[in-house]
């Protein structure tokens, strides 16, 4: 069964409005909050796609916070979106994983993470320098608070500090009602996102990020 045309149009129009609001220098983050199944992730994906298509951002990164993330898996995810292939994968299979807890392996993991971060930095440098005008880096944190939260990713896993040189950074979060714990709900979705989506969501409460 296909989606009703008014639903598709409503999501597209709201996506455009959100994208326009992100062009404001005083706006750097927003949150889509609502019950499960109303279309928060789909709307965030539409903004993500539009930002890339319209050239509003020089890079867009999508992170699913509905799963457990550690520092290595986080940066491997980002590297894959930058089409960077970690060099460690083949050697891990060769070692067979017999000494997972050895000091040598721990040291190797640290070195692999340092190398991976360095490659990501180089690629972000290249993308930022190659874009025309002042464009932002878009970061979407989907399903925030369900398993992993914004603070864990941005502070505990050091992503805020890691991305700081590549600003301005615009953040969009999606969260189920009562799950997110950011400073205020930048966007509240209390009903179905459809033809009247613009009346449901208040774009005026987009805020500045603390990262």
From TrEMBL:
Domain spans labelled NB-ARC: 17-152
GO MF annotations in UniProt: ADP binding
Pfam families cross-referenced by the UniProt entry: NB-ARC
Ranges where the record places region Disordered: 86-108
InterPro entries: NB-ARC, P-loop_NTPase
Biased composition (Acidic residues): 89-106
Record's protein name: NB-ARC domain-containing protein
Organism lineage string: Eukaryota, Viridiplantae, Streptophyta, Embryophyta, Tracheophyta
